[in-house]
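for the record, two folds in this file. i put them one after another cuz i was lazy. first one right below, seq on top, structure tokens after. the second one comes after a little note so u can tell where it starts
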Amino acid sequence: MNEQTLAQPSPPSATVELLTELSPSDLNDLCDATDAAIEAGGGFGWLDLPAREILERFWQGVVVMPARLLFVARLDGVICGTCQLVLPPHNNQAQSHSAHLTTHFVAPWARGFALSDRLLDAVEAQALSHDVSVINLDVRETMSAAISLYESHGYKRIGEHPSYAKVDGKTLKGFYYYKDLSES
């Protein structure tokens, strides 16, 4: 009897990039990944799936806003996650050293490839290139995986809001974090 060797499938290609324009396929991928994240309970504020045209307008608006830098994670070329770095407005000189991290998620079907970590690394590197030394973020108390991720990356919890969000009629706390990149 001959032994047949089956070729092992190669691991998927996992990448992260700064996205500066949206192709129709990227927009579709973004909306699909966002839908999956919302359905899994991590849709950065959305609890119910918005109409597709609302989601498309949301992502199109993000890309055209100069103070928002959109990072995307791709698995085999398909967008599966995002993170935004929101830079301070030019008139806010007192806080020009700090930015806000938001819309950080990876679709459930693409988890397990360290893309959340890689998105954070890319955001932090880009922040430094914009002379940003502090990144702020906030997260619902129920987002335990996100909380663990941020804390493992050196983000420090500095406060909580007792009435941060309402989900299914239940009031949830929110946690506020920051990271001083000059300490890293």
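(here's the note) second protein begins now
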Amino acid sequence: MKIDARNVNTTLKKPGNFRVILLYGENNGLAHERAVTAVKSFTSTLEDPFQVCILDKENHNRLVEEAFALSLMGGHRAVWVREADDGLSKNLQIILDTTSKMETQNSEQDTLIVLEASILSTKSSLRILAEKHPLVATIACYAEKGRSLEETIRNLIGKKSITPEALHRLTFFLGTDRNVIRNEIEKLLLYCGDKQSIDVNDVQQSMGDDGDFSLEDAIFAALSGNRIAADRALERAFMEGVTVIAVIRALLYHLHRLCQVRLAIEAGTPAKTAISQIRPPIFFKQMDAFTESVQLWNSQRLFKAAEQVQYLEYLSKQTQMPAQLLCQRLISSLSAHSK
């Protein structure tokens, strides 16, 4: 059964009649974090081996055995399966069929199975089984972006305030994986210490050697026509661990902001005014590159560029083509079209 986004937290903390929780998606960090929440909420612990059984990939064959094992200490028990994939489908079907025949099928389960998976396509046998069965809560863990990402950052920084420009820099640079986001925010908070307001300088300083923001540099260079700088910055971004999906999200975000400004200009607003009105504001060090991009692109060409980026996302997810090579080719193409 698919769980609506509004009910995710409730399901993780109080699974009720669900026998299984399947967590899957491209945001591996978020999937893991939610798995931790589900297991800890159900058993009140992560360390007790009598209450929490962790099955890594090499132990997937023990799933049925562990699913029906009794807790030696009594109370709730969780079976946490990592790196779940379609190879578990048959055993999961056995567990669900057996559970459905038991007299306790309408009462709260004593053992909860948490399946932590990565990306599962719509044709995945495990995902199809989970989404159709009433005893399985299926929760997608997609990349966080836009307001969702901003809300996550605000929650992680707690009571501290953050300037719009600093928030923009974080959302642009951090990518979409929850583990990366959490680690970088912890580093930022450690750098800020007792300071109650976080500004863009704090963000830059806490990033250390990564303060050059290679991904952002690549995008600004490409859309202002600097192909050599764009290629170099993108190569460095990949070396730093930036994923193709992160590049795609950042590109779409930047194209959207450029399009906002171009549409305002084409409606009669002076260029300088249109740029000054965009929120969050452009970082002052990138103002020249952004202004040049505004002059080089019109709204129609920006729409076409966005379509190319979306097509790259399709190719990277649905085909076996080398995603990084396709991404580098797209960046070079955008650089050429800028002129």
